[in-house]
Structures are given as C-alpha cells and as structure tokens.
Amino acid sequence: MPPHGGAHRSCSLDRAKQAVRTMIWYALTASDAIHDSSVHGRIPHFKGAEEAAARLATLPAWQRASVVKAVPDSAQLPVRARALEEGKTVYMAVPKLASLKAFYLFDPAALTVPPAEAAARRTAAAIAPTVEVDALRPLDLIVLGSVAVNRNGARIGKGAGYSDIEFALLTQAGLGTPETVVVTTVYSFQVAETPIPTTEHDAGVDLIVTPEETITCANPHRSTGVDWSVLTAEKIAAIPALAARQVP
Predict the structure, then answer these.
(1) What is the DSSP code string of 68-131?
(2) What share of the chain is helix, strand, coil (3-state, %, to 5)?
C-alpha cells in the first residue's frame, strides 16, 4: 500500500495527464481532424493515418524490421496492413490482455484474407492464432497509439494503461531490447509543445510520425520491466500473462 503522500502524488499526476488528454481531444474535435463520432476516451482515429503509415514505411527503422508489435487501434490499422503487405510478422494484443495467450500472431505467409482485412481488429479473433509471451520472436519495431506525445518522446494513451503493461511485459521477457525502435503515429495536433506528465512505468517513443513530419526523440524513457508496486492485485489477476510472471 503506497504511503499517503505517494497516493496524493499519483492522483495529482493522473489529473495532470487527464487535462492533457482533454485538451488534445477537444482540439482534434474542433479541427475536424478525426473519424470518430466522439474521440473522448479513445486513441484518436485521426485523418491522415494512411499518410502517416506511408511516411513511416520510408524510414530505415521500418525497412529493417521483420517483426512488428502493433496496437489494435483504428489509427494504426494502415501500419498493420502495410507491415503484412511487406511480409513482416505482426503481433497484436488480445483485448485487455485477458488471456494467457495474450497476443495474436499474424504470419503474412499464412494469411487467408487480404492484409488490410487481416489487420482489422474485428478480424483478428477469426483468423489469427494466439500465443503466449514466451512464444513471441524478438521485436524489431513496437508501434504505439497515443493521445498525446511530445518531442522528448513522452507519451500518454487513453488512460487504461494496457500499452505500458504490454511494453513492460515484453521488455521483461527480453523481447523489447535497447535496439527495438518504438514509434507512434499521430495527427500533428497530438504533438504537444508542453511537458507531458509521466511516471517511471510509462513507455516513451523513439520516433513520432505524423502525416507531414517525422520527429526523432532524444533519450526517451524506457521501462525496464513490470513495476509491480503500481499494480493492484485486481489488475494483476485480470491479466493472466501478468499473473503468470509475478514472483510469489
């Protein structure tokens, strides 16, 4: 149980993160920059996601990658589809990591539907086998969704925390290494010019790709593994892949 002061700081940090999210969500809505009917509470499905994916595909880090771990969000669908079209192996988390076999495996050589269809979140359960963390191949590229990110590589998602838990799990398993490139694709308004509040377990990014720009981040923070101290017993129990790695 964290001390009272620690709990207070955590609540203050959560409020600060939510203020940044709310600012970005309102800015995107006001600018008609999203496909979502309501973006609040979501990773924004931004207009120009295809162009951002095309820009990402021109980068050496992408061209070198043969194994990609990508989030299931709609904004990153063009990234997943392009990866499969180019013959890359793609892993994607099952919803809420609610299975011991916590990742879908998309093998481009074994697809039974076109890559763009295979990459859609609604299709995954029907066509892709699930695998445990230890069955994953080492990752060359990790693609994260973001609500906000800044040029230092600090990012925040929608607040559920699953991307950071996934990242920590993969790092602890030795699959995400210092050589693994971490990237997010976003709309230009999602690149905040102000500091983004983060904690020790929040994963930073090496590259930010918008439809118009590629930003290389200097010394982004990397999680070194699962920070058990910030996870409740209920959260651990709800994620079998996490519970399986907890040391009694």
Answers:
(1) EEE---GGGHHHHHHHHHTT-EEEEEPGGG-SSS-EEEE-GGG-SS-HHHHTSHHHHHHH--EE
(2) 40, 15, 45
Type of residue at 232 = T
Question: In whole angstroms, what is the distance from residue 243 CA to residue 69 CA?
Answer: 21
CA 201 to each of CA 9, 110, 171, 230: distance values in angstroms, whole numbers, following the listed order: 15, 35, 11, 9
Q: Roughly what angle, to the nearest 10 degrees, separates helices 77-85 and 49-56?
A: 40
Query: Which of 177, 221, 173, 176 has its CA nearest to residue 195?
Result: 221
CB < 8 Å & 24+ apart, contacts of 109-117: 111/84, 115/81, 115/82, 115/84, 115/85, 116/77, 116/81, 116/85
* pLDDT value for 195: 87
182 contacts 207 by C-beta, under 8 angstroms: yes
Three-class SS of residue 144? Answer: strand
* Per-residue pLDDT tens over the stretch 38-72: 999 999 999 999 999 999 999 999 999 999 999 99
Q: Enter the pTM of the model.
A: 0.92
Query: Strands 181-185, 130-131: parallel, antiparallel or unpaired by DSSP?
Result: unpaired
Residue 222 pLDDT greater than 90, yes or no: no
Which pLDDT score is estimated for 160? 82
The number of CA neighbours under 13 Å toward the Cβ of 130 is 16
Residue 198 banded pLDDT, cuts 50, 70, 90: confident
